[in-house]
Amino acid sequence: MMIDEIDKKILNVVIGNARLSLREIAKQIGYSVVTVMNRMKRLEKEKIIKEYIAHIDYEKLGYDVNIIIKIRVSKGKLFEVEKKIAIDQHVSAVYDITGDFDSIVIAKFKTRKALDIFLKKIQTYEFVERTETILILNTIKEKYNLLL
Description:
This protein has 148 residues and is α+β, with helices and mostly antiparallel strands. It has two domains: 5-45, Orthogonal Bundle (Arc Repressor Mutant, subunit A), CATH 1.10.10.10; 58-136, Alpha-Beta Plaits (2-Layer Sandwich). It is elongated and about 55 Å long. It has helices at residues 5-16, 22-29, 33-45, 78-86, 112-123, and strands at residues 65-73, 91-96, 103-109, 128-136. The two termini are 17 Å apart.
């Protein structure tokens, strides 16, 4: 599906604040509510807009231990391992990557103990050959990019 400038304007507004009403979005981009409603329905139907989510400040909820784990997996078992890791409540993202490792996991924990338990658990998974854990000290930017 091709998106045009109107779609991009709508998406940029929704990226910035998914809670806005159709009327507020229409006002911001200068089009009618009906136009915005029809466009958004089409974007949802085409799965360009997958969901509307809140951006949570996890540190305020006590999740102070944020990490990136690089994982090397035995050949042919990458998706199996990633699916197993992805269901854990601490995991916010799992990516296939290129380079010396096969996958990257981003996760948040309240304590080092919880992180330790998680790491030891995934290191016991069959087909996980090696992991490397990176502690995130500060988050400079964590937001979706606007469409140009």
